Amino acid sequence: MASIPANIFKLMLRLGVKRDISDPKKLVRHLRRVMNAPLTPSLLPRGIRLRHAHVAGVPGQWLSTPDPVVTVLYLHGGAFIGGRLETYHHFCGQLAKALNARVFLTDYRLAPEHPYPAATDDALQVYGKPVTLLAAI
Q: Are 69 and 101 within 8 A, CB to CB?
């Protein structure tokens, strides 16, 4: 049997996220509002710097340590219809610290404004860049 907090969380999800919305445009707006709602601030860890940039023509953000030795490409969640890069700053900043790396958070195009395969094309475009070029950025 599930705990009381688990049942409360399940009810909150059902009321706040899982709605029966038949109009696809309304559904996307609803999911983006839920996914992009700032639940808690996602701050950069100490010692990590943030820089906005483009790689292979795709916008994104670099999070890096002062002297990185590894490059990581991070594709955020959101089912290719939502998600804010700021949500992942703390996690990717901790990843950068742990690996002494630079992490590129790709701001790929989202559906339905940019239908499939736009998001995967953006991801593959960035991924296809040679690591030596990424390291120079």
A: yes
N- to C-terminal Cα separation, the chain: 52
30 and 48, same domain (yes or no): no
Give the residue from 28, 72, 58, 61 showing the smallest Cα distance to 120: 58
Q: In the block, which residue shows the tokens 């958070």?
A: 105
Kindly state the tokens that stand for 96.
């950068």
Handedness of CA 38, 42, 43, 48 (dihedral sign): negative
Work out how many domains the chain is built from and give that number. Answer: 2
Asked whether 102 and 96 are in contact (CB, 8 A), the reply is: yes
55, 62, 76, 77, 125 from 88: Cα distances, Å: 18, 12, 7, 9, 21
In this structure, what are the phi and psi dihedrals at residue 16, rounded to the nearest 5 degrees? Answer: -95, -30
The DSSP H or E segment spanning 6 is: helix 4-16
Question: pLDDT for 80-130, tens place per residue?
Answer: 667 778 888 888 999 999 999 999 999 988 878 888 898 889 889 998 875
Q: Does 55 lie in the same domain as 27?
A: no
